[in-house]
Each structure stands twice: as C-alpha cells, then as structure tokens.
Amino acid sequence: MKTLTIIKPDDWHLHLREGLVLKNIIQYTSEYYGRAVIMPNTKSPITSIDSAITYKKSIAEALPESSKFEPLMTMYLSDETDKGELINGFKNNVFFAAKLYPANATTNSSHGVKKIENLYEIFESMQDSGMPLLIHGEVTDSEVDIFDREEVFIDRELSAIARRFPKLKIVLEHITTSYAVDFVQENNIGATITPHHLHINRNAMFFGGLNSDFYCLPVAKRESNRLALRKAATSGKECFFLGTDSAPHLIKWKAFCGCAGIFNSPVALESYLTVFEEENALDNFEKFASLNGPKFYNMPPNREKLKLVSRLNKVAEFIDVIEDKNIVGQIKPFHAGETLKWQVEGIVN
Known about the structure:
Number of strands: 15
Oligomer: single chain
Strand order of the largest sheet: 2-3-4-5-6-7-8-9
Number of domains: 1
Number of helices: 12
C-alpha cells in the first residue's frame, strides 16, 4: 500500500451555500483543508462588510469547536460596488479578495457586473492595496457559443485588464481550456483548476441522455482541453493551484432545473490524486494542493500534514442532508458510485 504525506492543503475556490446545506457539507472541507476561499454568490450576494461578517459567523457556527479551519471571505463585485467599502473591508481583514462575476454568467450572478470597464477605478485601488481579483472568466453574450465563452472573455476583457493593471493579483478561476492555460502562463496571473475538469470532457453531459450531474459553469470542453488542464495541473508550475469549485445542489433541484455545479468536496483530494498518479506526477501533488496557492497569495503554508493512502475507496451514491436527525434531502457527489484508488487517512503530526 502506497502512502503520501503532504502539507495540509487549501481550497482556493469553494461554494458553501447557506443554512442547512452549509451545516451538512462544511465538514468535507474543514476536516482536511487549512483554509478555503469562500465564494460570495449566495442568494443575497456578499456585497458589504456587514454581510461578510454575518456569513463568516454562520460558517464558524457550523464548525466543531476544535476546528482550525479558516474561511477566507470575498466581496461580490457589482456595478454599484462602493470602493471605500471594498478597500476598508480588505484592510481590516474582512475581505480576502473580490470576486468578479459577469452578470448572469453562473449561479446567483444576476447582480454581477454588466460593463467591466466601469470597474477599472476599483481595479486600480485593488492593485494599489494588494487586494486579489478573482474572476469567473466567461462572456455572457447570447451570440457567443457556450464552449467559446472563456476564450472570448480572455480576448475581450481579461487581456485588457492584465495589460492595464500589471501589478494586480489576478486569479482566473476554474479554467477549462488550453487557451486559458497558455494565457495564465504568459501573463503572470494565477489559475485554479477543479477536479471535475481534469476527469470529464463535454461528452459527460450527454451520456445516457441529457445528464445534469456533469453540468457546471464553465462547462467542460473538448478532450484536447481536458488533456491540457491535466498537463498544467500536474506540471508543478506555481501559477496553477487547487480550487475545487465544489458547488452543491439538492438532487431534486439539480435534476429539475439543471442547476450548474458539481459537488466534489467529499472526494476532491482523492480525485485530484488519481489524476496525478495517472500522469506519473505524484511528486508534484503537494505543490499543486498545498504550496502554490499560499505562495501566490504571499501566505505561509499550513503547519499540519495530511496522510493519504492507496486504498480502494467506494464513493457514496448520495450525501444525505439531515435536519433534526431526519433526512430532508440528498446531494450527489462527484464520482458517485465509483471506486477510487486513494483515500484520505487523516491529519498527522
């Protein structure tokens, strides 16, 4: 049995939702990750210092008293964002970063930015203060093919931002294309890569009919793009780091409305590690999971270590959502029903 011990990882892109779902899923991240960047696209978006404090408190209340997990809060940018609120929140350690959603690009993004150029003054202040900008990189124009939206966003918006604000700390989130891989490497920015985009291509959405289990935004692309992402993630290059984009939806809603998002938190580390082993790159896993992110953000790596073992690991078909000891819903995890070859054993000294 092979074992792998790494510095405790961080998740640099995570959706925790709210209320009952939050209480039922937080354990899958807090148990094995030191920190996570929490996305602000809740039903009522996190657009102020007060809302961020309230949301962070609800996360803390869902954690065990002994938990060392640190949620890193983000501010949801909109056309009405108050620059003073944003920068004060950053300087007072309320906001870790700001998140840019083009309007209607993904779940709960209707309040997102309609004209990105209008935020250039805010980007300048973020550059001056050192505040990171996290970007959902897709255009939403109806005339642009959904499989081309990332590439068009890079050409139309991101290239101008990177050129105009060369010292702005930018992360292009959940990249899905070889075009994005190349842009990130050439422009001194960071990128998160999800486990599901390393495993599936766009065919997954159509196996057995229209399959919403594998529908996420940005959508998975062609096989050539998946292979490029695997090469990037396993390369050890400092610009690529772990961000699960784990996004839970109750099965009844996922099946009914085709909500975008894949819930991978219960098996994300094992899922990533499967790819690194297949690519003969186990030696680079710690860089991707535990070192590259902190280095990009000028933060120290976690002190604790995590042990993983090569053991058959049957993934549950469903994760129960429980209230007052009663099952009130279910969420389907990534790799549901599959048997992975790695398993997290736990924290070691």
